[in-house]
Design goal:
The complex is a heterodimer of chains A (410) and B (151). Chain A has 410 residues and is α/β, with parallel strands linked by helices. In chain A, the strands form 2 sheets. A 9-stranded mixed sheet of chain A has the order 3-2-4-7-1-8-11-10-9, with helices on both faces. Helix content of chain A is 37%, strand content 16%. Chain B is 15% helix and 33% strand. Chain B contains 2 helices and 7 strands. Chain B has helices at residues 6-19, 25-32; strands spanning 36-40, 62-66, 69-78, 93-100, 105-111, 130-137, 143-149. A 5-stranded mixed beta barrel of chain B has the order 3-4-5-7-6. Chain B has a two-stranded antiparallel sheet with strand order 1-2. The model of chain B has no long low-confidence stretch (mean pLDDT 93). The chains are: A alpha/beta (410), B alpha+beta (151).
Chain lengths: 410, 151
Amino acid sequence: MSVREATPDVAEARRMLKKGIVIAGVGETEQGILPDRGSFDLLSEATKLTLDDAGITLADVDGMVTAFSFVEHTLMHATTFCDYLGFRPGYFASVAVGGATAPLMAVQAALAIDAGLAEVVLCVRGDNTRSGISSSGMIAQAREMTQGEFEWPYGVTTIGGYGLLAQRYMHEYNVPQEALAAVVATQSEHGALKWNAMLREAVTIEDVLASRMIATPFHVLDCSLVNDGAAAFLVTTADRAKSMKSKPVYITGIGEGYSHQYISQAQSVDSVRDGLGRAGRRAMEVAGITPADLDVAEIYDSFSFTPLIALEGFGVCGKGEAGDWVLEGNAKLGGTLPMNTAGGLIRQAHLGAMHHIVEAALQLRGEADDTARGGGNHQVPGAKLAITNGSGGILAATSAIVLSSEPPSA
Amino acid sequence: MAERNEARTNWQAAQIKDGSRPEGRPFWEGTKEGKFLLPVGPDGKAFWYPRAFVPGTLDEVSWKESKGEGTVYTYSVHYLGPPGFSKKGDAPHVIALVDLDEGVRVMTNLVKDEENFPDIDIDQVRIGQRVRVVFDELSEEYTLPRFTIVD
């Protein structure tokens, strides 16, 4: 089977970002089990918090990018939410690429700004997935992750679908369960410091290994959270951001990558790593940086295995080496490249990669100390460069962005 | 002898019916006759899953029979599953990706034997294990291929 592949233009991406496309505001609600909160209620609060952070009002916004909901079923998510909000933007779009959605929302906003369709674009995503979804809705969602005719009827789950590739990876490189558990233990120490993390207690490798097995190789503590909550970020130009309140963070690299849709069609561990890794490698190429330049990594962590293959795909670690890299403490605060510094999807909350972007922005603003809000200090001292990514499906469609405290130099 | 898991059988038949595309019809007609048919392009190379046109080239599709033998590429033991599958405390079911000798990778269940198709004992499963197809008649309309270990 031959697959046709197109290659995007790095120079064109640089030209766009060189204009100075920035994140000029972020906001995140409480996360967890919030039975009294609705999906659009949460999105509205994230919107308000983000506008407050930028020091503007809805009247200053002219573009709206949203995602999708597992609870508010609509074919027109962006305008349905705009109607709820009482807002008529000049530009609107709903992005739906599963876990890759959040970075792609930032890309969509950048494209709209570059094309002159909008100047101030709000990107908001969230849901009351935990409290609002029906059991049939939950099953329908799991089914969408699979090929409906030749995978789903066998009883595969999302967890087990990831488990298939994880077990092959562990087999090929002789990676122990402890390496996966070390991802969870590391992130739990970070989540303990984040004011709105759903799980605030640190766990050990032993705790993870002792927790209930769901689908090999994943225990319940290896899995990401299902929660209620929302987050947002505001994309605009560096010029426009000068009149706003927050320190702008530059988007200096964007990239996408993809090796398969259904896990049975993934050719090999190598092809998956290369496919999703391409997103990060391209984003860094556009930004004109290498992995050694990074100060912070906010890496999509649907399961404990997910960041390992991404770290290798992005070139942070060699093939099969990410587990040891995490076991050695490199991903911890104070390590060589602190990863998922607010706890990630496994400990903070799962809103796709929204929190990864928000946390990366806060790190580069130097505002990741939550001591005053009842959390702790998870700031990486002097952080200037961050990579963040999201992956949709089972290690499938991936989008990455590089954020910088400085304007693009490339 | 293991009892047949009727709830699972009915659920699986319903899911296939619900998820099936017209271009997969020859495959399901084949399994009823004990054949694992693979879609192939003009070069004779098989691909999976069935499409109306050959992926990448959009050539015309024909079908050839697989010998139904292959190797376990990877697997995951599922302790929880959709309706009809493992629930907390039940024996787990095993999802595997099998590389057929004809060069395609398919998802399947690994089962112990053809007598009511009980789930395989998990200590019997390993990557690289040789397996062969067995045909599980779920309903009049659908027969589902599963795989069992080659002795």
